[in-house]
Design a protein that fits this description.
Blueprint (H helix, E strand, L loop, with lengths): L33 H25 L3 H21 L7 H32 L7 H26 L2 H14 L15 H6 L2 H13 L6 H21 L5 H37 L5 H40 L3
């Protein structure tokens, strides 16, 4: 075998062409049926996933893993919202994406924690830096185990099979395969934004004055589903509708970021509590200081998230009331 024939280290597992997709994603507009928009969105996201796979494998830049995970989550959302348009196999593909998402999420959580922890302890006194470095190293070691599990998942036949299944769902049918009739239209994708907004609004309304951490995390997931639904609906919308959907996208992005800060603070504080039992008193002291900072960050988010939700609600109502 020549050097040229050898597989490149950390190359993508496959290519869009090998999955039966074109050189670039197909386009879809307001005149196209909803299923075309769904396939186009899957096409775009499988390309994004494959583009970030080499960097995820190498670990050179945590952003690659983050973007690979985002692409995966968008595909899961598309299949949850509109998988019925693609046939009975869509749900099993969504389940496979969920399994891989767990592996990606485990490593991503460590990346966020380690990056934030390094920023926090950098402000501590010089005498606390040795213990701070030991604290960071503890989570770097744990991340190594999670990364090895992810690497095995990306090299598995199960992953390769999942990619082929997504490619099959994303492929646009030949002209003779197209059907006519009462299939959902592009306008239905825009009108469909009412459902994820309604679920989010209902969840907000059900919260007590001081909701639990888990409840706010669940709220963030509802907001993410609304955002991903809006991303798919925007290309299907006419100009004025698309402008209103863009405002909704901006609002949901802020909402997601704010509640993401809350979740990150909660996770970091819990991790620090676990470090208190290490038997290393200096490390435990540093962990306690970090936990205190994270609980303050959590309190700040809790004081302002409802105002951010009000912007999401306003933007969503502007879209839904005109569909």
């Amino acid at each position: 075998m020549t050097a040229e024939a050898l597989p490149r280290k950390n190359a993508p597992s496959t290519t869009p062409a090998a999955l039966g997709l074109g050189d670039r994603p197909a386009q879809a507009g307001p005149a196209d049926p909803a299923v075309t928009h769904v396939r186009v969105k899957l096409d775009v996201e499988i390309r994004a996933l494959l583009a970030h796979e080499p960097g995820t494998k190498s670990g050179a830049d945590p952003e690659d893993l983050h973007q690979m995970r985002v692409a995966l989550r968008r595909m899961r959302s598309v299949l949850k919202l509109s998988g019925r348009l693609l046939g009975p196999d869509a749900e099993s593909v969504r389940a496979e994406l969920g399994r891989l998402g767990q592996s990606l999420g485990e490593v991503r959580d460590y990346d966020v924690l380690i990056g934030h922890l390094r920023e926090v302890v950098a402000e501590f006194e010089v005498r606390d830096q040795p213990a701070a470095r030991r604290l960071v190293s503890k989570f770097v070691t744990e991340r190594g185990g999670a990364k090895r599990r992810l690497t095995r998942a990306l090299a598995s036949p199960r992953y390769a099979s999942m990619l082929r299944d997504i490619g099959r769902l994303a492929r646009q049918p030949d002209a003779e395969e197209l059907t006519s009739g009462a299939e959902p239209t592009a306008a239905d994708l825009v009108a469909g934004l009412a459902k994820p907004h309604r679920k989010l609004a209902k969840a907000v309304k059900a919260l007590p004055a001081d909701p639990s951490d888990d409840a706010l995390h669940a709220l963030r997931i509802y907001g993410k589903k609304l955002r991903y639904a809006a991303e798919m609906a925007k290309p299907a919308a006419k100009k004025k509708q698309a402008e209103r959907i863009q405002r909704l996208l901006k609002a949901t992005k802020v909402f997601q970021a704010v509640l993401g800060d809350h979740q990150d603070a909660c996770v970091a504080a819990d991790r620090m509590r676990g470090a208190l039992d290490s038997g290393d008193m200096e490390l435990a002291f540093v962990a306690g200081r970090v936990a205190e900072k994270e609980l303050l960050r959590r309190a700040e988010v809790r004081a302002g998230w409802r105002a951010v939700w009000a912007e999401v609600d306003k933007a969503a109502q502007a879209v839904i009331s005109r569909t």
